[in-house]
Amino acid sequence: MKRMVLGFSFCLSLAACGGGPREYSRASFNGPLQCAPYARAKTGVALYGAAASWWRGASGKYRRTQSPAQGEILVFRSTGRLPSGHVSVVRSTVSSRKILVEHANWEPGRIDRSVPVIDVSRNNDWSLVRVYWAPIKNLGSRAYPTYGFIVPRDIDDIARLQETPDHAM
Q1: Can you tell me the distance from the alpha carbon of 119 to that of 117, in angstroms, rounded to the nearest whole number?
Q2: Least confident range of 91-95, 102-106, 137-141, 156-160
Q3: Number of helices (H) and strands (E), helices first, in the chain?
Q4: Do the beta carbons of residue 103 and residue 116 sit within 8 Å?
């Protein structure tokens, strides 16, 4: 019986290795590169913990808004797909419903820049978004709930941070 259990365990471990290079498990999002430390390094905010907790943590420290601007931090809510939430830094505003962001670990282990994010909320308040997914070279099919944007600093500070190299993390 013990041999059968060990053999079955061995087969399961081999099966776990069989995924192709573009197949991600939820565990792959827990590697050394994470969105929160990346956003903190790019913006200089003094917020810590799970990305979704940043919205509450910003209360009384940073201004929060429902409309995007360069250098602001988009905070994603915690969901089944994003148990810790997610944060992205706005690079530019394209239109009232489209921004370009940079973020770490949306695609596991990568830093992505100039990533399209589209507001799909009914009230154009950025409470629900779709994000470009590089493996399919298109917007992802899922919509993600967000809290809004944290304004990290004044415009002069943001301009200086744009010149900061990524290795500042």
Answers
A1: 7
A2: 156-160
A3: 4, 8
A4: no
Q: What are the percentages of helix, strand and coil residues in the chain, rounded to 5?
A: 30, 30, 40
Q: Which tokens go with 87? A: 């944060």
Residue 6 has φ and ψ, to the nearest 5°, of: -65, -40
User: Whats the size of the chain, residue-wise?
Assistant: 169
Which residues are paired to 150 by β-bridges?
64, 73
Residue 110: count other Cβ atoms within 10 Å of its Cβ.
11
CB atoms within 10 A of CB 140: 15
* CB neighbourhood size of 77 (10 A): 16
Task: Band the pLDDT of 162: cuts 50, 70, 90.
Answer: low
The per-residue pLDDT for range 30-57, each reduced to its tens digit, is 557 899 999 999 999 999 999 999 999 9
